[in-house]
Amino acid sequence: MSLFDKVIIVDWSGGNDRGASPKKDAIWACVAGEIPVYLRNRALAEDWIGTQIAACQGRVLIGFDFPFGYPEGFAEVVTGQADALALWTWFEARVEDSPKANNRFDLAGELNRHFAGVGPFWGNALAREIVDLPRKGRSRYGHGMREKRAAEAQAKGAFACWQMSGAGSVGGQTMMGLPVLARLRARFEAAAWPFEPWREARVVLAEVWPSLIAQSVVRQQVEGEIKDAAQVRVLAGKIAGLSDTVLAAMLDVTEPRALTEGWILGLGREADLDCRE
To answer: Which structural domain, as residue segments, surrounds residue 181?
Structure first.
């Protein structure tokens, strides 16, 4: 029997409702072996994920494409605990989210006030100014945080979680995703990988990064298919197709900072993850 009976990959978004028509840079999800699903906002996505978990009697692995933690030291400054999961709880209590609006930029400014200097968060996509949130990354100074986690430092092309707007930014996705993870973890007693033991959990939440298999996505994307849809489809198939031995080795990550910052599933084992079709 495989380690997991169902593998789901979710391409997340920090933005507002994207409308009824499927489009890029929105939320896409895929159960391995099935057709990708377009989810126009986070509320619908959370409901869909919960339904998928509840419908499976076996074990479920769900990968989300945003950081599960921040550079070491951030959680302790904000929550008083050197525990990434304490941040999940912190965000779940403070994020205000609806299909048409959320408070991610204001919250980034509030978080910056925990630190000396200016930063670490930056990037304001709103017309109004936000206190303590600089629009440009070069405006930051003296905040004391490393720019990237150990995972981003190793993953070529990965962006820092401090960037809240602009091309490639993942800060908004992270901030609007962690509350959802906190609720899923509580509702289904899910294991938050790599912070918690995964072997006995029925549901495992894991961080993924589709760019690890970028060339396979290019080769397998069909004409007219939205790239986000192709990414979740191909990555779900890749992970579901791994042998138990290889997948277990990926989940048993040994990187020292993974337990405080999080990690990307398959990072450092790209050859195993992205084997040729």
So the answer is: 6-68+172-273
What would the pLDDT profile of 65-114 be if each residue is shown by its tens digit?
Answer: 999 999 999 999 999 999 999 999 999 999 999 999 999 999 999 999 99
Same domain, 90 and 144: yes
What is the total count of domains within the chain? 2
Give the model confidence (pLDDT) of 145-194 as tens digits: 999 999 999 999 999 999 999 988 999 999 999 999 999 999 999 999 99
Q: How far, in Å, are 40, 50, 174, 208, 254 from residue 266 at the CA level?
A: 28, 25, 19, 8, 12
Mark which of 111, 128, 154 sits at the end of a domain: 154
Count of C-beta atoms within a 10 Å radius of residue 53: 18
**Is residue 161 a part of any domain in this protein?**
no
Residue 197, in any domain of the structure: yes
155: nearest Cα among 62, 268, 10, 277: 268
User: Is residue 142 located within the same domain as residue 177?
Assistant: no
237: left (phi over 0), alpha (psi -120 to 50) or beta: alpha
CA distances from 59 to 55, 70, 237, 238, 252 (A): 11, 28, 16, 17, 17
189 & 251 share domain = yes
